[in-house]
From TrEMBL, chains A, B:
This is NTP transferase domain-containing protein. InterPro entries: GMPP_N, ManC/GMP-like_b-helix, Mannose-6P_isomerase_type2, NTP_transferase_dom, Nucleotide-diphossugar_trans. Keywords: Transferase. It holds the Pfam family NTP_transferase. GO terms for molecular function: mannose-1-phosphate guanylyltransferase (GTP) activity. Residues 326-374 form the MannoseP isomerase/GMP-like beta-helix domain. Residues 8-292 form the Nucleotidyl transferase domain. GO terms for biological process: GDP-mannose biosynthetic process. SUPFAM superfamilies: Guanosine diphospho-D-mannose pyrophosphorylase/mannose-6-phosphate isomerase linker domain (SSF159283), Nucleotide-diphospho-sugar transferases (SSF53448).
């Protein structure tokens, strides 16, 4: 039996303020190549999904980024341009409606544009298993085996236990999927530890698969005007009034994340399954995560000149020259300056033409407060 | 009785590599204004000594710095230009020989060009007391009351004790001077503590006063060719063969510090006295010292925008804008970039057009190794 066609959907939104000043309003995180592999996170995402797809992936992005997204991807994806950001559900639903018009039974899979995936082969295997579960009519999420009690991620609880030691489900169904009982938002440290100990929780990486019609019909139950709106826009595609229609309908769509709009209510109804992911994953959400990635997952990335025979471990990405003594640090240089580091421990340095950031990795989360302050008081052009 | 004329001598040499990249080969420490008061360290030194002097202060500096020294000082000092650096004794002796030609009984006082003095009035009083001791025929040094067991300074031991609690000598002679028993080079921490506890040690700030002829006659005993050489150069001043003579004689002069050439041997003979200094002093030898100065002695210097109500204490000198969160840091900015700091503790940031330095203040001494590495491997233009 031929399986249903698979079309990846990539909502490319979000500023990534915790990677400022690498990321800016005009150059958000998904357009960056923060680990220095030569491809942006968006390009890596399309590269990864393209070979698994039965049609061009659909990228949904803000009007302000459409041009650069098109430049980065060439013809490798179909780009839908949002007049304004309405969070992830309208973006994914719009793409689902576009796919539904072609083939209502096709499976769409939504993947973030700015995450890192460790093992491409395992990723392909997991997506294949998730497609089978989606063809069976489920809303499917990919569950990342947690490696530590993270408080920065949401969690997915499954009904059956799995073996934390193996990092794999204990009693998967035939297609490798486990029933989901609930989605939980970022927990405090104590709850995160309990989650890990229970062996029933995965990290929620925001990856969802479903048949296009299944997804939109479920959305029509939860938020009828949102489902109707994106179906109206998709139906008008190619007509003379298309642009006018988008401009009128889009701003009225409920701004909501797919987690709240679909995943949580459907999980409560027993209609969501999770397929355990066999690959490493990171949302590179801040400079601490990025430093960890560069140290552990991309040891080949970047170099720096260490002085003497000390235990310096300085990483350098970009154009700057780095000279370090007694330092564990990461440098992102977009200038051609000489950067000297002495006695630093767990520090990130971002050297751009107009902004210099020096940040202690263990305070990486606090960068948000600094960017908020800049939004309030300016200067605007640095954002 | 009219006192002898007093002529200050200011040897302006030394690169100050531990303040790199603020200080460079072409712009050594004494030409900088590291605390942002609007005058270079050299200008501050001349400003301080000028009013106490009976003639223009004599600045002795390298040929490569003569132009900029002249620019900074205008006509406020007489500048002697060394063909090449020979350490402090030849420079001071040359100036002494120039003064001796005018008035052998005049008192010269040698002061570093790149130190900070805390209290100008107390400085003037101390110099006046030291002049009286010098007129009595002694080699006089100014002794700084130590505030902590520093290992980065040399020490002066005096015969009589003084009260550490008061920071003043216990049994000064009529002119406030105490006999010196020896000069000690930078001690290890244990010895430094013993020095402090004994109540008989001062920091050696390298400030010496003596009648010109007394100093040169003493030098003639210790190093006859050196004394003869500078007297020969001074005698030729104004003659047609002056330049040729300097070029021939100067390179043969013994390169030696005044401490080794005069202070130590004369102390052993009981011919040196110390006048306790009533002023705060700092050689601002590295970024840790500079950060301490800016925090404790120059609280008015520089500003930075702190985010939120946290306990940030970030100082900013120069042209950069600094925005800080949860940081105790010092920023020296010569660019116009926006500098953001997150979670730093005791960090100095030096932001120049071609070099960026980020340094942990408690490893400030290690900067020397980094600069040495740069001298070895280049690029040369950064030095």
């Amino acid at each position: 039996m031929a399986s249903a066609p698979f079309i990846p959907v990539i909502p490319a939104g979000g500023a990534g303020t915790r990677l400022w000043p690498l990321s800016r309003r005009r150059r958000p995180k998904f357009l960056l190549d923060p680990t220095g592999v030569g491809r942006s996170l968006l390009q890596q995402t399309v590269d990864r999904l393209g070979p698994l797809a039965d049609g061009r992936p659909i990228v949904v992005t803000g009007a302000g980024h459409t041009a650069e997204v098109g430049e980065q991807l060439g013809g490798a994806a179909c780009v839908l341009s949002e007049p304004e950001p309405r969070n992830s559900m309208p973006a994914i639903a719009w793409a689902a409606a576009v796919v539904e018009r072609e083939d209502p039974d096709a499976v769409i899979g939504s993947f973030a544009a700015d995450h890192l995936i460790g093992d491409e082969e395992a990723f392909a295997e997991t997506v294949t298993a998730a497609r089978r579960a989606a063809e069976a009519g489920h809303l499917v999420t990919l569950g990342i085996s947690p490696t530590h009690p993270a408080t920065g991620f949401g969690y997915v609880e499954c009904a059956s236990g799995y073996e934390p030691a193996v990092g794999r489900p204990g009693t998967p169904s035939a297609d490798g999927a486990l029933p989901v009982t609930r989605f939980v938002e970022k927990p405090d440290p104590e709850r995160a530890r309990q989650f890990l100990a229970s062996g029933r929780f995965f990290w929620n990486a925001g990856m969802f698969l479903a048949r296009a019609r299944v997804l939109l019909d479920a959305l029509a139950e939860q938020l009828p005007p949102l489902a109707a709106g994106v179906r109206e826009i998709a139906a008008a595609h190619g007509s003379p009034e298309y642009e006018q229609l988008i401009a009128r309908v889009w701003p009225r769509l409920t701004a909501i994340a797919i987690d709240h709009a679909l995943a949580e209510p459907l999980a409560a109804d027993g209609r969501v399954v999770v397929v355990p992911a066999g690959f490493a994953w990171d949302d590179v959400g801040d400079f601490a995560a990025l430093a960890r990635q560069l140290r552990e997952e991309h040891p080949e990335a970047g170099g720096a000149r260490s002085v003497g025979t000390d235990d310096s471990d300085a990483r350098a990405l970009g154009t700057a020259t780095v000279q370090a003594i007694s330092s564990r640090a990461t440098v992102y240089g977009s200038t051609h300056r000489h950067i000297a580091l002495v006695g630093l421990e767990g520090i990130s340095v971002v050297d751009t033409e107009d902004v210099l950031l020096v940040l202690a990795d263990d305070r990486a989360q606090d960068l948000t407060a600094l960017v908020r302050d800049l939004e309030r008081t300016g200067p605007e052009h640095l954002l």
